[in-house]
Amino acid sequence: MTSKTTNKFSPEVRARAVRMVLDHASEHPSRWAAVTSIAAKIGCTPQTLHDWVKRAEIEGLYPARWRRKRWWLARLRARASHLRS
């Protein structure tokens, strides 16, 4: 049985689209608005582009804010622990 899905977009196009969403999100009222705008320009569905953005954040290509905050808090706690001892 063969898969019905194809990789219509190269990894370079996907990476560029993700970068565009993250770079231009502040110019739109929401991230979803940025996704729909950019998806229309590259010819994919908004949900597909949204999935690419989520995957890129999870994989660490573009760390989400919560990941940076969590890292910073862990570092702060380690320093506080070190200072207490």
CATH superfamily: Winged helix-like DNA-binding domain superfamily/Winged helix DNA-binding domain
**Class derived from helix and strand content:** mainly alpha
Largest sheet: none
How much β-strand is present in the residues?
Answer: under 5%
Average pLDDT value? 86
**Oligomeric category:** single chain
Tell me the name of the CATH class.
Mainly Alpha
Report the CATH topology name: Arc Repressor Mutant, subunit A
Total helical segments: 4
What string gives the helices and strands in order?
HHHH
Count the beta strands. Answer: 0
* Second rung of CATH, namely the architecture: Orthogonal Bundle
Q: What can you see in these coordinates?
A:
The model has no long low-confidence stretch (mean pLDDT 86). The chain has helices at 11-24, 31-42, 46-59, 65-84. The protein has a single domain (11-84), classed as Arc Repressor Mutant, subunit A. The longest helix has 20 residues, at 65-84. It is elongated, with a radius of gyration of 18 Å. It is built from four helices and no strands. The protein has 85 residues and is mostly helical.
